[in-house]
Amino acid sequence: MSVIVRPMTVDDFVQVYKLGLECYHVEDKPYNYWSLGEVAHHLQHESALCYVADDGGRVVGFALGAESFEILENTGHLEWVAIAPDYRRSGLALKLIETLVGIFEQMGKVQVVTDISSENPASRGMARKAGFREGISVTFFVRDLK
Which CATH number fits domain 4-129: 1.10.1670.10, 3.40.630.30, 3.30.420.40, 1.10.150.130? Predict the structure, then answer.
């Protein structure tokens, strides 16, 4: 495996979008925000925080971030991380996360947040491995109508 982590380009757009669809349960929060517009917004407005893992021209992972989290200007937001199933447990997610964390540090951010579904133990474990701790939690209440 000769995977490199590099900044995302417009040529990666389709592969990033399709990999997100493959990796996220887009009918569930928070993954239901995944869309063409979401990828385009990040690439256009947060390009310094868009990285891919590239294996010979194939995008096998990505991480997309935002310079701030809601109104907290001193807090970076690690929004999207995905790794192709056949590349998981190879260290790529950690490498992508550390790349973005390094950029957040260079930007002078004092912390980085990420939000992960409580039903995604693999991603929660990866966040802990990357040095994140669980913060304030909000439970998403649902009332079924049918």
Answer: 3.40.630.30
